[in-house]
Amino acid sequence: MTYVLADLHGYYDKYSEMLEKIQFSPADTLYILGDIIDRGPDGIRILRDMMLRSNVIPLLGNHEFTAAACLSWMLNDITEESLASLGPAQMGALQGWMNNGGESTFLAVCGLSREEREEILEYIMDMEIYAQAEAGSRAFLLVHAGLGHFVSGKDLSDYDLEDFLFSRPELDRQDDSGQYLVYGHTPTRLLRQQMGKPPSDAIFCWGTQIAIDCGCGFGGRMGCLCLDTMEEYYV
């Protein structure tokens, strides 16, 4: 079976419970659509578990992208002196990361050895920004945030990184490709409100769009979708 998760935001307990709930096995494939880290306490723990599983495929989220900008200089010892020596650009990146929930990840990274930090950075840098999958006679495009500046028929190579990582869903987009777009990033409770529906922390499907960020990082649930059966799972 092929499954998708998104926006785990450091909640290892829910991640672990979800793997048990779907009875995840070596024969299955799990795509995680970014924002694995930050906000919750155990993002690094989730990443290290994922690194041991060849059938878990991570996609880059805006939180991993932001963290990577700081991890490159965090390979060395992190001390008051080293932090004080950061230039304006580095300090700006660090402050931006902290303001967006990065403190828990920063503290976890501080407790790692240099070798462990290098492994985490390499894993993040190797993440793809999108994936395409076929399951249950359907075709899917998997991304973190959706597709900003969407134009039907536009080649994926013509989209910018920001379109994949930071955009907000275009709820009225029309896509005649027959491919379903699956993404996280924007909690489904907000999307439902934008469309005049009662807010709910549940997977939201309309047209060829499927939003799966069920607000785990904001006190909501973690939602998982099986692409073969379209069955939904929650913890």
**Which architecture does the CATH hierarchy give at level 2?**
4-Layer Sandwich
**What is the count of helical runs?**
9
Radius of gyration: 18 Å
What proportion of the residues form beta strands (DSSP E)?
A: 15-25%
User: Helicity, in percent?
Assistant: 25-40%
What class, by secondary structure content?
alpha/beta
Mean pLDDT: 93
The figure for the number of domains is 1
**What name is given to the CATH topology?**
Purple Acid Phosphatase, chain A, domain 2
Biggest β-sheet strands, sense, barrel: 5 strands, mixed
Kindly report the name of the CATH homologous superfamily: Metallo-dependent phosphatases
Extended strand count: 10
Shape from CA axes? globular
Tell me about this structure.
- It is built from nine helices and ten strands.
- It has 235 residues and is an alpha/beta fold.
- The chain has one domain: Metallo-dependent phosphatases (Purple Acid Phosphatase, chain A, domain 2, 4-Layer Sandwich), CATH 3.60.21.
- The strands form two sheets. It has a five-stranded mixed sheet with strand order 3-2-1-9-10, with no helix packed on it.
- Helix 3 (62-71) runs antiparallel to helix 5 and helix 3 packs across helix 7.
- The protein is globular and about 55 Å long.
- The two termini are 19 Å apart.
- The mean pLDDT is 93.
Compose a concise summary of this entry.
The chain is of the alpha/beta class and 235 residues long.
